[in-house]
Specification:
The chain contains ten helices and six strands, in the order ααβββαβαβααβαααα. The chain has 217 residues and is α/β, with parallel strands linked by helices. Strand 1 and strand 2 form a beta hairpin. Helix 1 (3-10) crosses helix 2 (14-22), helix 7 runs antiparallel to helix 8 and helix 8 (171-189) runs parallel beside helix 10 (205-213). The longest helix has 20 residues, at 150-169. It is globular and about 60 Å long. Residues 192-217 are annotated as: Disordered.
């Protein structure tokens, strides 16, 4: 059906439907004449089991981002015509393997599909293994996008440095050092390197080495 017809059926504006199409949230394609055609949902293989949304951010100061992320997941599910049974939000680093809400979701065999915004929202490393195990159970992970933002990656990177600093220098000093390291990492991401960031005395030789390695991530 045409995008305009789809918009009327869903009770949304054409502008919203177009935004969903451009964001890759619709199973649709554009003809040579420019007309956007949305495939009939009935021709799409139905999902098995219940559908759950999983949204995650790395830190407490990203609560607003978490709310927006969940809203995007809801929009995506609505655009696909999915009936969502569960919405799960979690605040934890993608490098942290102790995420009780995700663990509970993965252990719930009644959940057939877990929708995430991108692979890194599930986990920074090893997402392939989670996806493979779920598929072996007849379940799957559906991702809206394939990549994540540099800002989130910096936050996860800093969480590792904070943990290291706590062990090396003690917790009272770890937060201050982590903040300084984060500022330096952000400069490195922008191909800038203030003099204080190049000093191993300022942030520690081990952290300096890891910060420079961040360029190649």
């Amino acid at each position: 059906m045409k995008l305009s017809t789809y918009a009327r059926q869903q009770g949304i504006s054409y502008k919203t439907a177009w935004r969903w199409y451009k964001a890759g949230m619709l199973d649709a394609y554009q003809t040579e004449t420019g007309t956007v055609i949305v495939r009939d949902p009935q021709t799409v293989q139905p999902l098995t089991g219940r559908i759950a949304l999983y949204a995650r951010v790395s830190s407490l100061d990203q609560k607003e981002d978490l709310t927006r992320q969940l809203a995007r997941l809801k929009d995506y599910a609505a655009a696909k015509g999915y009936q969502v049974s569960k919405e799960v939000t979690e605040i934890a680093s993608g490098l942290n393997d102790k995420r009780p809400k995700l663990e509970k979701l993965l252990a719930d065999s009644s959940i057939g599909t877990i929708i995430v915004e991108n692979r890194d929202r599930l986990t920074r490393f090893g997402a392939h293994y989670i996806v493979t195990l779920l598929e072996a159970q007849g379940r799957h992970v559906e991702m809206i996008f394939q990549t994540d933002t540099d800002d989130e990656l910096v936050d996860d990177f800093v969480s590792v440095i904070t943990s290291m600093a706590a062990r090396m220098y003690g917790r009272p000093h770890s937060k201050r050092r982590a903040e300084k390291i984060k500022q330096c990492v952000e400069h490195v991401m922008q191909d800038e390197e203030p003099e204080e960031c190049s000093s191993s005395r300022a942030i520690g030789s081990n952290e300096t080495s890891m910060m420079h390695n961040k360029r190649s991530l």
